[in-house]
Amino acid sequence: MAKTKYSCVYQDKSGRFFYLVELGTDQVTGKRIQKKGTKDSLGKRFSSAREAHKEVMRIKNEYMMTNGYANYDLSYKKFMEESYIPYYKASVQRSTWHSRECGLIQITEHFENKKLREINVRDCENYRIWLLNNSGYSQSYCSLIYGMFRKSLDYAVTLQFLNENISKRTRAIPKGKSVVSYWTKEDFEKVLATVYKDDFYEHMCFVLIWLYYMTGIRVSEGLALNWNDVDFKRKKLRVHHTLEMTNQSNFIRKPYTKTESGLRIISLDDDTVKVLKEWKQVQKYHGVKEFILSYTDLPLYRSTVQRIIQRYAKLARVPLIQGKGLRHSHVSYLINEFNADILVVSQRLGHSSPEITLKHYAHLWSRNDENIAKKMTGNIKFIYAKESNIPHFNGNQAVKI
């Protein structure tokens, strides 16, 4: 076999020209994809190396157009179990994985043994409609599930299992409007009045509710707080950790927050400083020295925070809210009591930009113009004209007096 001046074209001992083309590696089997021949597409033998070269170029072009991606009977289920799910699990935080695992299983079971390459626009649209009309999920969860499905097909394209993400031809499912309940200042005062601080556990409940309401930190950020995060002299609270917890003997205090912008230092008011100083002494008396929101020196479960909030909400007869509702409450408190500007609120919440703050909390500024309206009253000074300054009305409309 002798090489010619054309790539992939050779001449054997009999003088015949032939091609041997390497088209890559099969993504599943790992075997090389090769094509070899002595004839063109019409079955005619090559009379020159140039003719063989033309056939090589045709084969490569055809392969890239039609078979440039792994061509095999891979099912969607096998793709998910062997490729996407392991990739996704390794790419996100453990807490995120646990919250998404059920959704990924649901998607996998829905398409199950459908061949990955045979999923078409109609299949995607039917799944989208099923989620919205028959799944029984909330619209926000439907949005999350369908978004995960679309991302799985994105990954299939990345691995060259697919030519394109066919689901992108369908519309995404909007999250819909989510209204988060929160406590007003009056609600907060009613809740505090129901707490019996002389009891060690209830005192911790008081500190928990107070700290979340007065700082706006995320639930996982608050659970991770240690006393070395508090600077009593400068009146600052350092928010640089989040808590990931399976149980009280298996937890991680991660040295980062939900986003990079979440790493922040919050200024504390004198009342909060006083609450924390008093609580630190009470904890010390009971042998608790590390976690701020703790009565055993071990971190609380996230579900415990929710139970505490709901327990005192029922006692005070105020709206039942979630943990993130206290974060919402903090924003409402800053706006309605102190007319806080968007930049200050954004910095305290740990958002990367004021636009994100507005996206989630714009409705809380709805009453922010009342003071302006009051100031506008009587601000314009003038005296009505005593007679018309227009010499003669010359319009073409009939004027009835």
TrEMBL record:
Residues 178-376 form the Tyr recombinase domain. Coiled coil: none annotated. The keyword Transmembrane does not apply. Pfam families: Phage_integrase (PF00589). It comes from the Bacteria. Keywords: DNA recombination, DNA-binding. CDD domains: INT_ICEBs1_C_like (cd01189). Belongs to the 'phage' integrase family. This is Tyrosine-type recombinase/integrase. It comes from Enterococcus entomosocium.
